[in-house]
Structure formats: C-alpha cells, structure tokens
Design a protein that fits this description.
Largest sheet: none
Mean pLDDT: 76
Low-confidence stretches: 290-304
Radius of gyration: 36 Å
Strand content: under 5%
Number of strands: 0
Distance between the termini: 101 Å
Structural class: mainly alpha
C-alpha cells in the first residue's frame, strides 16, 4: 500500500512538472512571437548584405527578441501572480484552474530571475559586441573570428564590472566578511550587481522622464499646426490680395481715354474685393467656431 502511494506521489509530481513546463513554454512562446513582431516592426530595413553579415544580424535579432521576451515576462509576472492568486481565492473548488498553483508561480519567478541575469550579463552584451565585431587583425575573416572577438570583449567587460563592484564595495563597506561574500557569485554577487544596475536604470528613468515629456510636448506643439482649412484660407486671401494690387496698378497706369478697359477692370476689382471680404468673413467664422453661413460659401475656384 505504501509502495502504491509512493508511486502515485511520484506520478503526480511528474505530471505536475510536465504541466508546469508546458505552461511555461507556451507563455514564453507567446511572448517571443509578440517580441519578434515588435522588433521587426521598428527595426531599420537594411539593404541586401553578404551572407556573413546576414547571419550575424539574424543571430543578434534572435538574442534581442529573446531578451525582450524575458523582460516582458519579468514585468508581467507580478500582475500575473496577483491575478492568479485572486482567481484561486475566488474559485477554490474549480478543477479547471487548479493549475494556477503556488508551484507554478514559484517556478515562473525562478525562471524569470535566471533568464533575467542571463540576458543582462551575457546575451545583451554578446548581441551588441557580436553585431559590431569584425574580427581581430591578422585572423581570417568569418563568423569564428567575430565570435572570438566578441568573447574577448565580454571577458574584458566582466573584468571591468568586477573591478568597479569591488571598488564600490570597498568604499561603501570595507569589511572582510562583505568582501568575502563577493566570491559567492550566484548567491550574492550577481543579485547585488543586478540590484545596482536596476537602481541605475530607475535613476536614469527619473532623470529622463521629465526631459522626455517636455520634448514630447514640444514635438506635438510643432506637429499640431493650423488646420488645413485655415491654411487654405490664408493662401487664398494672400492670392486675392496680390490680384487686387495688380488690378489697382493696372487701373492707375491706364489713361482715361480707354473707357471700356477701365470699366472692365473696375468691375473685376470690385469682384475681387467682394471675394476677399467673404473669405475674411469665412476665416473669422472658422476661428470663432461658428457654422459657416451661406454668405461665406465661397468656392475655391473663385480665388484662382
């Protein structure tokens, strides 16, 4: 009997692990597809490239998409945990939502922490350096040379960050125990470094948000120009003013003996003045937000 209970417990644990792995894979697949469409939507369209550059771009695109998917999952994990907990409390006896258990949430948090550190310290720097690499001088050009250069740059970057953290720890807390704790890479050093980078990101966000908002309103103010109807009215009024001045000069230059031409020009000048008055009235109605009356209904062809 005890053996059957042990087998049943192992089977239940096995099925639980399979279910959690399947759910995690499906959630990550959805996030990856959404991230891929987002990156390809805003990625600059590059010209036709050589085979080597095309392979490098595809690898960098894959790493960037993976990083964006992990970031989105880490951001959405907290509301997902809250919502799932509320659902379980609201429907405790429902069989179809029992997969939203604490084991799944705990596993998601562990995966989010693991892949966040992996993306932050490995994948993102690798994608950047790999995209910018060309291979060391004297070596045969190719993917291997670029990978070698990228790995060397990653090693130098790791040494640089390690030194900065050691100096910061020595300045802040010059204690032997705290310095020895830095040797514990997984349990202390990486979470400490992750917290430092997160703090820098939050400070940068606080600094850049006011500047970005002011810049956004400035750009919107430049884009929100006058309506098209006002631009058309101003242009028509300007054209009619020029036409009026031209007719006035022609009238002043003609002699009084050419009576027929003078009468014709005076009639045309009177029509132009009437049209200009109607356009001014129309512009005033548009500015005040009133309905355009029939007296202001001027066709665009009359201004030409």
């Amino acid at each position: 009997m005890e053996g059957q209970d042990e087998v049943s417990a192992r089977e239940q644990h096995f099925h639980s692990q399979v279910r959690e792995s399947t759910i995690c894979f499906l959630l990550f697949a959805i996030l990856y597809v959404v991230s891929y469409f987002i990156i390809t939507r805003y990625k600059r369209k590059s010209d036709e490239q050589e085979d080597e550059d095309a392979i490098v771009n595809r690898i960098s695109l894959f790493l960037s998409t993976f990083t964006l998917a992990v970031s989105a999952g880490a951001v959405l994990l907290l509301p997902f945990s809250i919502i799932s907990n509320e659902i379980l409390l609201s429907f405790p006896q429902n069989y179809y939502i029992q997969w939203l258990n604490g084991s799944l949430i705990h596993g998601l948090w562990n995966l989010a922490s693991l892949f966040s550190n992996l993306c932050l310290f490995v994948l993102m720097p690798f994608a950047f350096f790999f995209l910018e690499s060309e291979g060391f001088a004297g070596l045969k050009k190719g993917i291997r040379a670029r990978i070698l250069e990228t790995l060397v740059m990653l090693l130098l970057l790791a040494l640089l960050i390690l030194g900065i953290v050691w100096v910061a720890s020595a300045l802040i807390d010059n204690d032997a125990a705290s310095m020895e704790s830095l040797y514990d890479l997984w349990e202390f050093y990486l979470p400490y470094l992750y917290s430092c980078i997160s703090l820098m990101g939050c400070l940068l966000l606080l600094l850049c948000t006011p500047v970005g908002l002011s810049r956004m309103f400035t750009v919107m103010g430049q884009l929100l120009v006058k309506p098209t109807i006002l631009e058309d009215l101003d242009e028509q009024i300007y054209i009619i003013t020029l036409e009026e001045e031209a007719l006035q000069r022609r009238l002043n230059g003609l002699s009084s003996s050419v009576e027929y031409n003078i009468m014709e020009l005076e009639q045309e000048l009177e029509n132009v003045k009437t049209l200009k008055t109607k356009l001014d009235h129309w512009k005033l109605c548009v500015h005040l937000g009133f309905e355009l009356c029939s007296a202001c209904d001027v066709e665009n062809t009359g201004a030409s």
